[in-house]
Specification:
Blueprint (H helix, E strand, L loop, with lengths): L10 H13 L5 H29 L4 H13 L5
Length: about 80
């Protein structure tokens, strides 16, 4: 199910959405915006989960952080 809403956006974001459609990386402006909102919601959900873990278990140790950074680097996702 979808719901139609009206939002106001900065011109540069609207231009980016139209450019994504023109380039074929989005099927429509609505699909582009829905994808962006979905990604943001996912990041916020993940951030909430991580915050809960830190509250429950404490912050990660230096060794744990190093392991994560190494694993991300191996996947090409590191800084």
């Amino acid at each position: 199910m979808t719901t139609r809403i009206t939002v106001s956006l900065p011109e540069e974001l609207v231009a980016a959405a139209h450019a994504a459609v023109a380039a074929g990386s989005a099927t429509s402006v609505s699909a582009y915006v829905a994808s962006a909102l979905s990604e943001k919601a996912g990041r916020e959900t993940l951030a909430g989960l991580l915050a809960e873990w830190v509250e429950e278990l404490g912050p990660p140790t230096a060794d744990e952080e190093a392991w994560v950074e190494g694993a991300l680097a191996e996947m090409g996702l590191g800084d």
